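Need residues for this backbone.
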C-alpha cells in the first residue's frame, strides 16, 4: 500500500486495526484523505506525515495514539480530527498559523496544554473548533472575523481570561461553549461584544466573580444564562444603560462608555442570575 504513489483516498476507519501507524505513510505524497478513526492504534503520529503535501483531511480520532503532535504538518490541511487520544504537549502553533484553508480542528479529550491565545488568528475559513477536555491555559483563543465559524467548544480547560472582542465578527456562530474551566474565569470589558445574539453562550460550571462593563455589548433580544457562577459583583446600576433601538453594533466613546454598567449595550435580555453571591449591584 505504501508504494501506491498515486493513492489519494485511504479510509480504514472502524476496522479494529491495532499496532502503530507506519512511518512509510510519508511515501503517499498524493494522499488527500486519511481516515483511521475508531480503531485501536497506538504509538505516536509519524513525523513523516509532513511529506503528504497534498493531504486535506487527517482523521485519527478515537484511538490510543500518544506522544506529541508533529511540529510539521501539511499546510494543505483543511480538516484535522485527532480527538479522543492520548496526545500530550502543545499545539504546533507556527504550523497551524500557516494553514490558511483550515475549516475543522478537533483535538478534544487529549492531554494537551499551553497558551493558544493567538494560534488560530489566520484561520479565516474555520467552521468548527473543539479544544474541550485538555489543559490549555491563559486567555481563550482569539477567533475573530471568521464568517463560516459555527461552533466553538472550549469546555473543561484552564482558560482564565477572555480578552476584549475575542469572538467578534463571526456572524454565523451558533455555539460558544466555555464551560467548566479549572481556573477562575475573568471576562474583560467587551469580552463577548459583537457575538451574534443568536449564539448560545455556555458558562456552566465556571467561577466568574466579576462581570466587567460592556462584556456582552450588542446582545439584543436574547437569553443569557449566568446562574451558579459564583458571581459577586455586577458593577453599578445594573441594566439601566442600554443601546438605543437603532444601534446594533458597539460604539465606543459614547456618553455612557466610561460608566461601570455590567450589561451596558444590551437590550431585551432574558437574564438568569440565580444562585450566585451578588453583593454589589
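Answer:
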Amino acid at each position: 500500500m505504501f508504494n501506491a504513489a498515486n493513492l489519494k483516498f485511504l479510509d480504514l476507519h472502524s476496522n479494529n486495526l491495532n499496532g502503530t501507524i507506519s512511518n512509510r505513510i510519508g511515501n503517499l505524497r498524493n494522499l488527500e484523505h486519511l481516515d483511521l478513526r475508531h480503531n485501536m492504534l497506538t504509538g505516536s503520529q509519524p513525523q513523516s506525515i509532513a511529506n503528504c503535501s497534498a493531504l486535506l483531511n487527517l482523521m485519527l480520532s478515537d484511538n490510543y495514539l500518544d506522544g506529541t503532535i508533529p511540529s510539521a504538518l501539511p499546510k494543505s490541511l483543511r480538516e484535522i480530527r485527532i480527538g479522543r487520544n492520548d496526545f500530550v504537549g502543545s499545539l504546533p502553533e507556527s504550523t497551524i498559523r500557516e494553514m490558511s484553508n483550515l475549516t475543522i480542528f478537533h483535538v478534544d479529550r487529549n492531554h494537551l496544554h499551553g497558551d493558544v491565545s493567538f494560534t488560530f488568528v489566520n484561520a479565516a475559513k474555520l467552521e468548527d473548533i473543539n479544544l474541550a477536555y485538555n489543559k490549555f491555559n491563559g486567555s481563550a483563543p482569539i477567533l475573530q472575523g471568521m464568517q463560516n465559524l459555527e461552533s466553538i467548544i472550549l469546555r473543561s480547560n484552564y482558560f482564565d481570561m477572555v480578552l476584549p472582542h475575542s469572538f467578534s465578527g463571526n456572524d454565523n456562530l451558533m455555539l460558544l461553549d466555555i464551560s467548566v474551566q479549572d481556573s477562575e474565569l475573568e471576562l474583560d470589558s467587551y469580552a463577548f461584544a459583537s457575538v451574534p445574539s443568536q449564539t448560545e453562550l455556555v458558562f456552566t460550571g465556571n467561577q466568574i466573580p466579576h462581570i466587567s462593563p460592556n462584556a456582552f455589548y450588542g446582545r439584543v433580544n436574547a437569553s443569557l444564562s449566568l446562574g451558579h457562577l459564583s458571581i459577586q459583583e455586577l458593577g453599578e446600576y445594573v441594566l439601566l444603560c442600554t443601546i438605543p433601538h437603532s444601534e446594533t453594533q458597539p460604539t465606543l466613546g459614547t456618553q455612557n462608555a466610561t460608566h461601570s454598567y455590567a450589561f451596558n449595550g444590551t437590550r431585551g435580555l432574558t437574564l438568569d442570575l440565580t444562585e450566585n453571591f451578588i453583593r454589589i449591584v
